Amino acid sequence: MKNLSPSLEDYLEAAYTLSLKEGFSRACGISRLLKVSKPSVNSAVKALAARGLLEHEHYGYIRLSPAGLKAGAEISGRHALLKDFFVSVLAMDENQAGEDACRAEHALSPEALRRVGALAVFLKAPPRRRLLLAARSAMSKRKNG
Question: What pTM was computed for the model?
Fold first, then answer.
């Protein structure tokens, strides 16, 4: 990616997520999804368009370029990997896991992300699955009791 700030990555991820459903997104949809103002979205869209990651019709559709689709998929994949790890391995609440994944996806190196993914696969494999479930149960009991 072309050195995007965490904020621009969030806007690109939102545009990508919305585009998966319809093939495009709109500023109002991104605004709702990220809970930000439309002027903030418009500013981010201009910055992303200047980097060749999307195209925006004035007061119209936002479409990701091939580079934008690739970058959006990468960002979304990092988020999904971390959220899954937080929920399935660390037994975190879905909402908290999503918020933490959003912050962590920008901070971790590709190597750290690769290793988190490998650890999740290792822990979720059948021979260790019972241990993972027992640990999650113990964490839940400790939290609730």
Answer: 0.85
Tokens of 125: 């494999």
Q: What distance in Å separates the CA atoms of residue 10 and residue 4, rounded to the nearest whole number?
A: 10
Residues ≥6 apart with Cβ < 8 Å to 135: 91
- The domain spanning residue 19 has which CATH number? 1.10.10.10
Q: Which range marks the domain in which residue 89 is found?
A: 76-144
CA torsion through residues 85, 140, 135, 133, sign: negative
Q: What is the mean pLDDT of the chain?
A: 91
Residue 47 contacts residue 106 (beta carbons within 8 Å): no
In DSSP notation, 53-102 reads SEEE-TTS-EEE-HHHHHHHHHHHHHHHHHHHIIIIIT---HHHHHHHHH
High-pLDDT (> 70) share of the chain, %: 98
pLDDT digits 0-9 by tens, 57-88? 877 899 999 999 999 999 999 999 999 999 98
